[in-house]
Amino acid sequence: MKIFIYGDMMKSEYRGRRDVDSLVSFIAQHYVGSVRDFLDEEDLKSRMDKSRRNIVAFIKREGEEYKNIYNLALLLRDYCDIWVPALGTQLITAKLRLYYMPPDNDTPNDFVGDMKNYTYLKQWVTDKCIPLVREVTFENVEGLTEEGLPFLIYFRDPAKKEDEKLFVDAVARELYDQRVSINPLLADGLKFLHPLSHLGKTIKVEKYRNED
């Protein structure tokens, strides 16, 4: 069952039961906690999961800016956490600001544009929340398949970080404008060794010779 948030289709589908109680429960859970609030900067730092992608919006709880952020929080809740100041805090009277905090990085990336422009804002937030190249595993492959895009998978040796970087850089350089029509993915070649063997693929063994 496809899910649409204010006209935008979510990447993941609803795969639960089709009875009324299950559907109502799913919708209620989807709306709860989509936008996370914080009291002050210290509260934000202590509660933010820095291993995830985070978007922080210093905006008031009314107006078109908040409506747009709220819609995006619903649409992208599986990919990043979106934070806004709690009601009653002085932070909501401060200057409007929107920034992105990458995983395990303390350097914010500020949004430069009009938060009332939903199309432009959605593109910026989506680019930050959903990486261009993602990791495919046995656990998430079904969800990625539901996105309906052909896979471009690099089965790599996880120990060779430089090879992974070369692939990511090549995708960003050559395929960025194709991101709506192809799904570039990384996969642990060792974990996928068995299914790859059915395709006639084997591990390339590098032999080292000691020279006297």
List the topology elements.
Blueprint: E1 4-5, E2 8-9, H1 20-31, E3 35-38, H2 41-47, E4 53-58, H3 64-75, E5 80-85, E6 97-101, E7 109-110, H4 118-129, E8 134-135, H5 141-145, E9 151-156, H6 161-174, E10 183-188, H7 193-197
Parallel strand pairs: 3-5, 4-5, 8-10, 9-10
Antiparallel strand pairs: 1-2, 4-6, 6-7
InterPro entries: ERP44 (IPR052643), Thioredoxin-like_sf (IPR036249)
GO molecular function: protein disulfide isomerase activity
Write a short abstract of this structure.
This protein is 32% helix and 19% strand. By secondary structure, the chain is α/β, with parallel strands linked by helices.
Would you give an account of this structure?
- InterPro entries: ERP44 (IPR052643), Thioredoxin-like_sf (IPR036249).
- GO terms for molecular function: protein disulfide isomerase activity.
- The chain is α/β, with parallel strands linked by helices and 212 residues long.
- The chain has helices spanning 20-31, 41-47, 64-75, 118-129, 141-145, 161-174, 193-197; strands at residues 4-5, 8-9, 35-38, 53-58, 80-85, 97-101, 109-110, 134-135, 151-156, 183-188.
- Helix 3 (64-75) links the parallel strand 4 (53-58) and strand 5 (80-85).
- It has a five-stranded mixed beta sheet with strand order 3-5-4-6-7. Strands 8-10-9 form a three-stranded parallel beta sheet, covered by helices on one side. Strands 1-2 form a two-stranded antiparallel ribbon.
- It folds into two domains: 4-129, 3-Layer(aba) Sandwich (Glutaredoxin); 134-199, Glutaredoxin.
- The chain contains seven helices and ten strands.
- It is globular, with a radius of gyration of 21 Å.
- The termini are far apart.
- 32% of the residues lie in helices and 19% in strands.
- Residues 207-212 have low confidence and may be disordered.
